[in-house]
TrEMBL record:
<dbReference type="InterPro" id="IPR050605">
    <property type="entry name" value="Olfactomedin-like_domain"/>
</dbReference>
<keyword id="KW-1015">Disulfide bond</keyword>
<keyword id="KW-0175">Coiled coil</keyword>
<keyword id="KW-0325">Glycoprotein</keyword>
<dbReference type="Pfam" id="PF02191">
    <property type="entry name" value="OLF"/>
</dbReference>
<dbReference type="InterPro" id="IPR003112">
    <property type="entry name" value="Olfac-like_dom"/>
</dbReference>
<keyword id="KW-0964">Secreted</keyword>
<keyword id="KW-0770">Synapse</keyword>
<dbReference type="InterPro" id="IPR022082">
    <property type="entry name" value="Noelin_dom"/>
</dbReference>
<dbReference type="GO" id="GO:0045202">
    <property type="term" value="C:synapse"/>
</dbReference>
<feature type="disulfide bond">
    <location>
        <begin position="225"/>
        <end position="407"/>
    </location>
</feature>
<dbReference type="Pfam" id="PF12308">
    <property type="entry name" value="Noelin-1"/>
</dbReference>
<dbReference type="GO" id="GO:0005615">
    <property type="term" value="C:extracellular space"/>
</dbReference>
<protein>
    <submittedName>
        <fullName>Olfactomedin 2</fullName>
    </submittedName>
</protein>
<dbReference type="GO" id="GO:0007165">
    <property type="term" value="P:signal transduction"/>
</dbReference>
<feature type="domain" description="Olfactomedin-like">
    <location>
        <begin position="224"/>
        <end position="476"/>
    </location>
</feature>
<keyword id="KW-0732">Signal</keyword>
Length: 482
């Protein structure tokens, strides 16, 4: 029996409160709200928000809200080493190093003291002998002979190293005083961290975050398609390449493929860079190059199930290039589609044909002369590139900044410049449209590529030479069976 959609399970409600805290706290906890910029030459500037190390990662979880507007699950979180960037973790690592240094210093002092003490013990009979002779000569100076004096000088020479041993003892006392002060400082810092953490053990907090991430995964797996209601602030992953370009991960669901692809420029390009992981992409390392047999046009490319789908330069031909075999599997003309800047987005750049993917499959966004320049949406068969079904949205393509598909709905922005917002939505399931007002921060003021990735539930954008991610909030109807 279906329960009214306003009713949310107690578990999700509890998780909502926790994840609401996470969405506010975790970004600052792991350093998401600040970027680190480092230069590596003129053309490779890496901007890393949450991906500074080779062993760290991030995942963007889509936000879901119930009909009452309550958060169900949302977070932008690192995938591994969750607390590695926590300032307290850095303090603990520093304290560990200091403790190790103090421990090593104490071992050195102990070893040296033991060695010197043994030397003193070995010298004790000689020292007692010299002391006895001196007392005898002081009590009766007449007993001092030339031979006896010579023997006394020899014994004194043997005892001379004791002076350096005594000096070392003095220095060791100073070292011990320093170590005592360091231990006092470490104790104060540890006390402060303990008070800051409060009743929770630090490792316990890490385990709780891991548990929360597992619950978030579970929550996201239960959520189906939804309607876009908000776009988050931008997450700058990297700055590289020219003003125009595209970057993407495989949009096939499900897929464990973690590769990232980058295609710089929009005109006659053929060079595709394939990075092993997102971490490698942010660093600009561990990549291979694919040289396409046919150049591309625009930036509306998509990777779907291991293949790159793109628009062939100066044509309306769609090309399927398979990465692992490094070969073209398929070419097919998109009948009637304009090309070569006949019907581009507002920013131009031969963006006549925009290929994209969402939860429901592969799509082409374009227009034709009979359509008078209005946006056409066609669902494609990825195996044959045949058009399965088409819709005329009625929205003029030259007035659109960019477009993307989520759950079978086309979303269109009103500009590629600063102040842009998601202005129009066309629902293919009902062949209806609506005007929307969903703002987002166009941080670098010139977007030349904007695509939704259903695996990550995030928007990938190329913004004036910066590769930027946006989290999305989807309105979900959550039902349960009674």
């Amino acid at each position: 029996m279906s329960v009214p959609m306003l009713k949310i399970g107690a578990v999700l409600s509890t998780m909502a409160m926790v994840t609401n805290w996470m969405s506010q706290t975790l970004p600052s906890l792991v350093g998401l709200n600040g970027t680190i910029i480092s230069s590596e030459g003129t053309h490779e500037r890496i901007v890393s928000g949450l991906y500074p190390g080779s062993e760290e990662g991030w995942q963007v979880y889509s936000t879901a809200s119930d009909p009452d507007g309550r958060c169900v699950c949302t977070v932008v979180a690192p995938a591994r080493n969750l607390c590695k960037r926590d300032p307290r973790s850095r303090q603990l690592r520093l304290l560990t190093e200091q403790v190790q240094n103090v421990s090593q210093s104490m071992e050195v002092v102990d070893l040296r003291t033991s060695r010197d003490l043994q030397y003193v013990r070995d010298s004790e009979p000689l020292l007692r002998g010299v002391d006895g002779r001196l007392h005898t000569y002081v009590a009766n100076p007449r007993t001092l002979t030339a031979k006896g004096l010579q023997e006394l000088k020899g014994q004194m020479s043997q005892l001379r190293p004791l002076l350096s041993v005594v000096e070392q003892y003095r220095l060791d006392l100073q070292t011990l005083a320093t170590l005592r002060l360091e231990l006092l400082n470490l104790s104060i810092i540890l006390t402060a961290i303990q008070e800051e953490i409060g009743a929770y053990d630090y490792e316990e907090l890490q385990q709780r975050v891991l548990l929360l991430e597992t619950r978030l995964h579970s929550c996201m797996n239960k959520l189906g398609c939804g309607r876009l209601t908000a776009v988050s602030g931008p997450i700058t992953v990297r700055a590289s390449g020219s003003r125009f370009g595209s970057w993407m991960t495989d949009a096939m669901i499900p897929s464990s493929d973690s590769r990232v692809w980058s295609m710089d420029g929009y005109y006659k390009g053929r060079r595709v860079l394939e990075y092993r992981t997102m971490g490698d992409f942010t660093k600009g390392q561990n990549f291979v190059q694919h040289l396409l047999p046919h150049p591309w046009a625009g930036t509306g490319h998509v990777v779907y199930n291991g293949s790159l789908y793109y628009n062939k330069h100066q044509s309306n031909i769609l090309v399927q290039y398979h990465f692992r075999s490094r070969s073209v599997l398929l070419q097919r003309s998109l009948s009637g589609a304009g090309y070569n800047n006949t019907f581009p987005y507002s920013w131009g750049g031969s963006s006549d044909i925009d290929l994209m993917a969402d939860e429901t499959g592969l799509w082409a966004v374009y227009t034709t002369i009979p359509n008078a320049g209005n946006i056409m949406v066609s669902r494609l068969d990825p195996r044959s590139l045949d058009v399965l079904q088409s819709w005329d949205t009625g929205f003029p393509k030259r007035s659109a900044g960019e477009a993307f598909m989520i759950c079978g709905t086309l979303y269109v922005t009103n500009s590629h410049l600063a102040g842009a917002k998601v202005h129009f939505a066309y629902h293919t399931n009902s062949s209806t449209y609506e005007y929307t007002d969903i703002p987002f921060h166009n941080q670098y003021s010139h977007i030349s590529m904007m695509d939704y990735n259903p695996r990550e539930r995030a928007l990938y954008t190329w913004n004036n030479g910066h590769q930027v991610l946006y989290n999305v909030t989807l309105f979900h109807v959550i039902r349960s069976d009674g």
